[in-house]
Give the backbone structure.
Amino acid sequence: MRSKLSEWYDVGLRYEKTLEDGTTKTVTEQYVVEAKSFTEAESNIGEQMKPYIRGNFAVKSIKKTPFSEIFFSTKDKDNKWFKAKLQFVTINEKSAKEQLSNVVYLIQSANLSKACKSIDDIMDGTTIDYDSLSLQETKIMDVFEFGK
């Protein structure tokens, strides 16, 4: 898995989608877009989706995501996105007291159990003590990177 730290925006996009049976249906889908501003997020989603959309589309919502980092899979079967909330346990050097801090990751995986294993694999490479607070499948259709 590779990861990327950046600014991410959650974009709700409404458009007419051609279904597998050839019919069209108006849908609102959720995407995550890398951008430095709301305006750039709107521009980036339009640019990215233009080849797939016939007719008009509308950005119905844009909000900053809580994701500290996004983990991308290279496997074709990993076509779902999971939101993982972890709690890091650190020791304050001055007071010697335990401190807790929450982080939210987005992980690409095929299913919940594989996403959980991915978290363990990612965290095994660190010395940070952590607890998994939650792991849930999202409705995110795709994640688009721009600033490589």
